[in-house]
Design goal:
β7 and β8 form a beta hairpin. The termini are close together. By secondary structure, the protein is α/β, with parallel strands linked by helices. α2 runs parallel beside α5. The protein has a single domain, classed as Uracil-DNA glycosylase-like domain (Uracil-DNA Glycosylase, subunit E). Keywords: 4Fe-4S, DNA damage, DNA repair, Hydrolase, Iron, Iron-sulfur, Metal-binding. It comes from Halorientalis pallida.
């Protein structure tokens, strides 16, 4: 099954319990899904596009472009097989722990609709959520120590990303190097179900 929407902002028409959402943005058929925390941390309250409008977002965009995930940086960026979204997409200040479950169903539904092969959670909360929810990997106390490493699971390849505002130059280069290496490999997480249908053709699904 292939998504056919060509609408980059909120392609699946998600609704949120707030007046100023910053919905998911990018390619509905993305291979890479970049997952942030919320607009107050990673930007987009003014533009309505994740990972924009702040220095940390600019820094992340530059690394994603250098790693082949963006065709061009900007507001909005020009994506290259990439989708960006937030755990908490509402631009209404800093969320409490009780706020995240209110929008978790929309986040989960969108993530599963995108079915990206590679998840890039950005920052401690996003890393913990992705590891706990979508992998069987243990969650270490210091999750940011996993920055730019590849964690392979049954359903996704996960590449944790430390907070861009806290990066050293080396950490920025490590992320770019990891993304370039992933592009050189067969990172797709697919199964060939061709043996279950008539004929000799392959039928790959996520």
């Amino acid at each position: 099954m292939e998504n056919v929407t060509d609408r980059p902002s909120n392609p699946f028409g998600m609704t949120y319990p707030c007046e100023r959402p910053v919905p998911g943005y990018g390619d509905a058929n993305a291979h890479f899904h970049v997952i942030g925390d919320h607009p107050s941390v990673h930007g987009g309250a003014d533009s309505g596009v994740p990972f924009t409008d702040c220095p940390a977002a600019d820094r992340l965009q530059r690394a994603l472009a250098a790693g082949g995930l963006l065709a061009a940086t900007g507001t909005p960026p020009e994506v290259a097989g990439t989708f960006c979204s937030y755990l908490y997409p509402c631009a209404d200040g800093t969320p409490t722990d009780a706020d995240y479950p209110l929008v978790e169903p929309q986040f989960d539904a969108e993530l599963r609709a995108i079915t990206a092969h590679v998840l890039l959670p950005v920052g401690g909360r996003a890393i913990r959520h992705v590891l706990e929810t979508y992998t069987a990997h243990p969650v270490p106390d210091d999750v940011v120590a996993l920055h730019a490493t590849e964690l392979r699971g049954g359903g996704f390849l996960v590449v944790p990303v430390d907070e861009p505002a806290a990066w050293t130059d080396d950490e920025a280069e490590e992320l770019v190097a990891t993304l370039r290496e992933i592009h050189r490999t067969d990172y797709r997480r697919e199964a060939d179900l061709g043996r279950f249908i008539a004929g000799d053709d392959s039928y790959f699904v996520r």
